[in-house]
Amino acid sequence: xxxxxxxxxxxxxxxxxxxxxxxxxxxxxxxxxxxxxxxxxxxxxxxxxxxxxxxxxxxxxxxxxxxxxxxxxxxxxxxxxxxxxxxxxxxxxxxxxxxxxxxxxxxxxxxxxxxxxxxxxxxxxxxxxxxxxxxxxxxxxxxxxxxxxxxxxxxxxxxxxxxxxxxxxxxxxxxxxxxxxxxxxxxxxxxxxxxxxxxxxxxxxxxxxxxxxxxxxxxxxxxxxxxxxxxxxxxxxxxxxxxxxxxxxxxxxxxxxxxxxxxxxxxxxxxxxxxxxxxxxxxxxxxxxxxxxxxxxxxxxxxxxxxxxxxxxxxxxxxxxxxxxxxxxxxxxxxxxxxxxxxxxxxxxxxxxxxxxxxxxxxxxxxxxxxxxxxxxxxxxxxxxxxxxxxxxxxxxxxxxxxxxxxxxxxxxxxxxxx
Length: 419
Hints:
The chain is built from 13 helices and 14 strands. It is of the alpha/beta class.
């Protein structure tokens, strides 16, 4: 990259520690270039307050705040929900937000005729890959500046030192400096005491959890909810029709109060290391649970099992930043086909971190009480099981008979032959 040609840079801007210090750093290291800040609103709510003032004060020429909430839910979250995509228990809250934000970033860079795009992802994390693979898809010739792979800053403590030296206002301090990512789907926590896997997360410490409470502090009485789905998409909560986005927001509130959706895992990052994270995903956890319950009666065995296998691949693609790839799109087409009759109602009981199935109904249910009953009658004739078992077990019987013959002729003992 020829730095002398970089006159205008579009920066993925959150107002957090990383991107706040990048603005003055870009000006110092890239010819006092113009910096256009772009923030993608994917539901981080209060984090957007005062963002424009802060961006301009630290040297940006302007700030775009892109409302991506509907696009994020409809085009990224819902496909993952329908797929049942889960990466090592993680519901992909950061993973599927990044391609959505990066797409908006690319659109502004093209509109502004920028010379480069800059992001604040560290060289140790997954986000650098997610951002850059999306940028390569939408603006393949655009130079990308990744300060964490260039500057001499090695830690978040040194970032704070830089911010203080350049009078960059911060909302954090050295004692509460968790690395967090928040959107309407989840909130993640990394760093500080969580870097020691022997430390229990401080769930009950004031200020640690933001989307809810720990199960210990949840109500002593359960909360019942009902969710309606149409072709795998949530369309109503407790009988009230609303958008998928508003259902998520409402479930975040309900689930959070009941201690739902807390996850403490050590996950395998794309870049090769293991990393510990604590996630709050109250609404998302409820939706995944309800969707799975509905699928249990609407999908046949072979389709369900194949879908579960492919869900791992789908999740890996999303986690690894490969959203805009032929394979991910092909898997999405398969998933859409499986969801054509995933329509119905699910009732859940929420109690102190637990999501308990309390009823499921669908006009497309493959479950038949008449067939499954332990009572008398019905179309299932138990005598038919004799022929079924004989045919199903035929390969086992043939192998056992061969083992007996070989033992008799050659004295070779096989597991199926008793000495």
